[in-house]
Design goal:
By secondary structure, this protein is α+β, with helices and mostly antiparallel strands. It has 25 helices and 33 strands. It has an 8-stranded mixed beta sheet, with no helix packed on it. Strands 17-18-19-21-20 form a 5-stranded mixed beta sheet, with helices on one face. Bound molecules: O-methyl-L-tyrosine and zinc ion.
Amino acid sequence: MTTQTPQETTKDVPKEIFLRDYKPPSHSFAKVELAFDLREQGTTVRSIISAVPASGSTGELFLHGDESVKLDGVTVNGSAHERYERGSKGLTLKDLPNEPFELSITTTIEPQENTALEGLYKSSGNFCTQCEAEGFRRITFYQDRPDCMSTFTTRIEADKAKYPVLLSNGNLIDSGELEGGRHFTVWEDPWVKPCYLFALVAGNLGMIEDKFKTMSGKDVTLRIFTEKHNIDKCAHAMTSLIKSMKWDEETFGLEYDLDLFNIVAVDDFNMGAMENKSLNIFNSRLVLATPQSATDADYAAIEGVVAHEYFHNYTGNRVTCRDWFQLSLKEGLTVYRDQEFSADMNSRGVKRIGDVSRLRTAQFAQDAGPMAHPIRPESYIKMDNFYTVTVYEKGAEVVRMYETLLGKDGFRKGMDLYFQRHDGQAVTTEDFFAAMSDANGADLSTFKPWYSQAGTPRVTANGSYDADAKTFTLSLTQVVPKTPGQDTKIPVMCPVAVGLVGPDGKDMELTLDGKSVGTTTVLRFDKAEATYTFTGVEAKPVPSILRNFSAPVRLTTNLTQDDLVFLMANDSDAFNRWEAGQTLLRTLLLDLIKGDGQYKMDAAITTAMRAIIAGAKEPNADKAFIARAMMVPSAGELSDMLDEGTVDPAKIHEARTFVMKTLATELRADLEATMKANSAEKYSNEPADRAARSLKNTCIGYLSYLDDAAIAAMTYERFASADNMTDKIAALNSLSDKECDERIKAFAEFYEEWNKDPLVMNKWLGLQAMSNLPNNIANVKALMEGPAFDIKNPNKVYSLIGGFCASSVNFHAADGSGYEFLADVVIKLDDLNGQVASRMVSAFTRWKKYEPSRSSAMRAQLERIRAKKGLSENVFEIVSKSLEA
Ligand code: 0A1
Ligand code: ZN
């Protein structure tokens, strides 16, 4: 609970909104007609709403509206209506008719001054919108809540020369010329939707077009719009869209429901992308790509996010959320769907490893800190703060667990029933749960706490073999830790996928409770403790527990180092093969970090790593997997595993550097040979080439830890001769922590070549900001003043400031200079864009995790920020929760 009032913050005390207070809307809106008159100053918006009072209506209707919106007039059934009260959050209309009526509202807004990038704003001179979660109230007065669903017709009028392209949701039903060089279009969206899915774009844009024939034979026109000079960079996004449309038909039987699907790329965007009905708006970094300007990781992100937004057409748009507490209903489900799509398009095992790494580093940390919240939060001050890794990524894990428990077919049955029951409705996570349970006749009641409890369950698994009885017994325990506001927790159903690997390295056939259960079985573990005994186990196995990371828990086992080395070599489950190696590395690193500073390498780990690298020579080697398996746990992941009040980022950095350097020294010949064997003559974007590229670049990354001038020279050579951005960035990254001329030269040349391309410049800013070279803060401050930076552009802030926060050495400098710098930036940003500022201030949320001098320095900065006059609600919520937890 937030109790503290910010000192002279927003005019009202920030108000916490609770799930338990949900009430249905007082009126439904049967139809909405919008008319935008876009101007360089003073854009007017007229809405005509067919309003229907709900039974028991009191004749009052509350419409949300931001203080920046000028109200020009209200009419009811054509007559001026002046019986209303305006507050800081909106308008209460009074004495309204008790039968359906027509409400008309006219407002004036100033999109050209909108730096928050919510509502209607300008990006690169073009108009665009962002209405999720609560941006529509910056455009006009409306019931800005997802359970108010209506059909929209939108008329847009603007100067024709400046804004030849005028887009909104649905189908184009009219267009024409107007006096004074102006023109108009009219769009009609036949599907009901909440206003957060409304979109408008007006600009001077280029476009590529393609077609998709749906499963029932309908032709859909697909268009991607962008600034004209970027039009040659849209092909990959288009291919990704077509693949997504096909996949959703094949996997879930879901067919696109309009004749037109548009994507627009804009440079100024707070988040990744937005699923507005038939008019997706994207951050340009998630659309534009050529091999020369984008990395393999960018290509993968584009494929995944294009799919994500497209998949929202059903999971989010056709079936939407009743209220924002249900956000995971659409986001968890849609992330699960995009993860599955990407797994089908690429290497499934490697995709899962990447997703779990992200979950562990970012979400586990959030779940253990002051911002911990269930995937269905109970309260919020600013909804924007709840677009979190918990709602998205943990939410996706919760959806994945249904699939693990019910099987692929059972999951599909649940999805079918969900759409059958709820198409066109605004519903809750309870409705999704009911569809999954009912479609399968399953009792999943002990699964429900995943929605209401925050915190990552801690599961222990102890296995023991009885050679006489030929049984293998697995004892499991679980504890869900306390989180702010939730002191008592109950056990929750964790599907634990288990296999037993025999001495020959093969999976054993399992018998449990007298039944044959195949080679992997899913234990439905929903008690504080449970024991499972496998019978007929002829030889001592090594258990492979939590295969494919079947539940989002922190697992501790009694596996020995030998067991882990064995699993690394033999487990049939790709995830657990990787996980065995990571467990070895984590144990070593945590020992070094907690030790006396006398670093010593574990020879078994060097041997295991040598074997992993040697695997690359096998004929069908999965090189992308090998590259992943070579990666040492990140500083963030290690920090999350250390006790509260103990984290010293300098020590983590030292220990990681020691391990990387020792491995690089001992395995130098293997690394160099693998690097050479996987260096292609020419760029290609085939999966095998991408895999080889990632392996080669991982080797270069290791080698860069050697203090050897020849390596720096070789890396620079590779940088200079690279024919694609993946290799260029990998080489630049390998130089970025090195005090050498090659680094200075490479960064300067990169700037010369790419300074006209803002997306590439973001990479340049990010790599420099993340550098762990001592005193790099001066460089970051200089970059902030330079031409490549613009504090109003979120991507640039995320790259430079976000990148800086990722530097163990400089953000966490012992003198507190990094913390002071971040606070200065947050205070400045807060006046421009509260959403971006609150994302940046989140680097401070886990201040209690750090050793006393750093934690008190961070705390002091949080207090300084809290004292700022007129602090945004976004930042206020994060700062006050961090300080009070
Ligand atoms: N629904 C989008 C994410 C999104 C959320 C909020 C935004 O502005 C505050 C923008 C986009 C998605 O999941 O892709
Ligand atoms: Zn989404």
